[in-house]
Design a protein that fits this description.
Elements lengths: L14 H11 L13 H13 L1 H7 L4 H6 L11 H13 L6 H6 L1 H13 L1
Helix pairs in contact: 2-5, 5-7
Length: 120
Amino acid sequence: MNKSDKPSRSKKPSTKAKSANAAVNTPNRVPNIKWVKSPDWTWALITYLTDHPAFRKKLFSDSTADANKEGRNKAVGKDGKPQQYAVLAKHIFENDATQSGYYAKTPVQFATSVETRLRR
């Protein structure tokens, strides 16, 4: 059997290459959310948290010691953190001129982005 008689085996692309190609070729893919390039989003986040102290306490886990010292009940969120991040994402991106369309398609991605922004 000659080398030319053997069927050629083509190398399959790696999973990483497949996902990179899919990202490039997918027209509906939401672009990365670049907080650094849009400081207005950070200011909208800060403003919301400043204007809603009860929400802020629930999001950042109100301290039992502080609540006892101030003679009040501890503020506990009935919604989990993902729902709270979703509220913030809606406030920031729902009416944003550049992101509202993307937000409408994938609000969970924007909620995750808010969470990431707050954790940095």
